[in-house]
Design a protein that fits this description.
5-stranded antiparallel beta sheet; 4-stranded antiparallel beta sheet; Jelly Rolls; alpha+beta
Length: 139
């Protein structure tokens, strides 16, 4: 009896983790649809589990003379994430909050800059995964 219980428990845990992974992959697919030619991904997947009012912080270096696209997503639709781009002194450079929580935005940098990117869930969401992709424009 004990063996059956533990086997059932293991199968249930495996099923739950498989479902969670499938949901994360679906959300990542939504994020990926914004990184299309002429943009190519930098190969990184930035993700964080957020609850309540938590804010995820990511760091990236953007090289001068290049155009980049930042794509963010959470859940099953666009517009669920507010992201803000800061320089390393925390001066606000951009926030998608001013643009109806646009799921992506293009940036052109004239000089190389280290940036901090903050992402938070739109109000009303108790928890969720925040995903971010960065693409650069092919020359």
């Amino acid at each position: 009896m004990r063996k059956i219980f533990f086997t059932g428990l293991i199968l249930m845990a495996w099923g739950i983790s498989f479902t969670a992974m499938a949901q994360m992959n679906t959300t990542m697919d939504i994020c990926t649809k914004h990184i299309v030619p002429p943009f190519i991904s930098d190969g990184q997947q930035y993700k964080a589990l957020l609850t309540g009012e938590e804010i995820a912080e990511f760091r990236a270096t953007f090289y001068g003379g290049s155009t980049y696209r930042i794509s963010v997503c959470s859940g099953q639709s666009d517009g669920n994430i507010v992201f803000s781009l800061y320089d390393k002194e925390r001066n606000l450079l951009f926030t998608n909050k001013d643009y109806e929580n646009s799921p992506y935005w293009d940036f052109r940098f004239t000089a190389t800059i280290d940036c901090i990117i903050e992402a938070e869930l739109v109000g009303g969401q108790a928890s969720g995964f925040a995903f971010m992709l960065i693409g650069f424009k092919q020359l």
